[in-house]
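Chain A, query sequence.
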Amino acid sequence: MAGAAGMDHPAVVKILTLPGADVGIKVNNYLVGQYLRALDIRRITHEIGAIFAGRQPMCSGYTPGGVTTSVKTADVNQAITLLNKVIAFIGNPLDFNTGTAKTMMFDAVAAAHLFSEYFWIGNSWGHFMANGLYETGFVNGVSDFTAHFIGRPGIANNLDKRGFRRGYRLSAQSPFPGGGGYTAPKALNILKIGESIANSRYDKNEDGTYALDGSPGFLHPWDGETSPNTSNEYSWLKSPRYNISATTEPDYQVFEVGPLARQVVQGNYFAGVLNALGFGLTPTWNQGGPDFSGKGFPGMYPDGGPDLSGNKYIGDSTLDRIAARAFEAYLMARMLKTYLTQLKNSYMASGYSKSGCTDDDPTQIAPETKGYGMTEASRGALSHWIRAENGKIKKYQAVVPTTWNASPRDINGNPGPAEKSLMNEGGVWVENLDEPIEITRVTHSYDFCIACAVHLITPNGEVKKIPIPALP
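Chain A, predicted structure.
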């Protein structure tokens, strides 16, 4: 369980009055109940998607220029009705302060109080990347995190007009030095993305380079090779990296992607932003962590816990990822409602909307072409890369969010963000080796697309199963 410092907050006291034999059971019962509610909300979001694109969550039927179904005003109204249920579950930023429980916003802040040590656990490299999202930008200031949560004007100008910027940052330190002007993220050059397979299960040379004559340690996705070899290394994922060097000498660095990365690149989230919001027990930049090595925490660390006093808060912890995801859900849900309202009022005045599509003109196909698409998926930066000859696909590569975050060590020996989060300063402290739940707390904070299949396996191959009681 967590540090006792936040236990006296009125909202925490409200949780602790729930039925249960001890603090742990009371908190777990509440959170498991919320987890079950979240599953229902997830089903509702799939219903919204199904209105426009068919079966969810897989095999969405989108086509270039439109969707595969004709949408009527009644369909949009139904989507808005369902979305309002989602918005109610997400709640408001001040729910914790007002004691309004059973919302996602309440739970995120409650976790920051009950598990405050996780601001210093699960740290990675502190590098963040985003491909940019919503090319037409946001409307009505919906994306202005600071205006929503801090109550002051945020970033007034976005020169590339995207709702979320494309670029990267090498730190989560506040981009507002001394409360002054905004510091823009560094530009993203698509030609400087490279992938290593040194520790991946693909054919390669003895030195970890691609099994091609004279191949370097990193290949751009347009040149990437994917030749499986089950006897090699420890991951089916490649290791995407970004070359930050301004010279001819490459410097491929590890980057984290996802909701936290988007918000950091945007300038909305930084180490200490929650403290600026007025939420107690949340740290400021470079602040040392708590020391739970002494005893005296019944129901929490009865045998002593971690000493995090030597760890510095840098804003890419387990709790930072959870908080950024909750706050972004708040923004995205409102943006979706704005889009749906626009669709109904501006584009469907006749009560009926036609689907659209585009066709390639085969007479315009070049002998050799390259193309790419970059956007932000829910889990982070997503890009697809294609090479074609005479109108036929020659090579297709995808660099997806989970590949960035769950990637193995690259040819330089640098582990991916999640692996880094389990080691060194800010690594995981496990209380009970027979039930190392702390490891999955950290890995799940990345929200891998394989999250439901992330298990703890012992060196002899045993999968540990732990029953978790659920409220009715």
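Residues 23-53 form the longest helix (31 residues). Confidence is low (pLDDT under 50) at residues 1-5, 152-157, 350-360.
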